[in-house]
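Page 42, continued from yesterday. The earlier attempt failed because a stray header line got pasted into the input along with the sequence. Redoing it now with the clean sequence only.
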Amino acid sequence: MAKLSSINKNERRKQLVKQYAAKYEKLKAIANDKSLDDGERLIARLKMAEIPRNANPTRVRNRCSTTGRPRGYYRKFGLNRIELRDLGNKGLIPGLTKSSW
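This time it went through. Structure tokens are written below.
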């Protein structure tokens, strides 16, 4: 089980990303638009720097939904590798079977 503070910090980051998503995308589109002059693009980059650091989507960490473990995360299931194997062996994940040959 991951530290509760790490899980809560990640949840706060998700909230900030959600809150600033529209503004961040608009500024990023302006900053990456090559047809605009450099002055407008620079102003957009400076405004992006004023947005809180944790509002950047890349700062959100994928974590296991049951344990909060950040490593070995499978996006398709929302679980880490250890929980995926445990639940798969118990038959609690539909369509998942243990391979044998």
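Notes: The chain has two domains: 1-55, 72-101.
Reminder to self: strip header lines before submitting.
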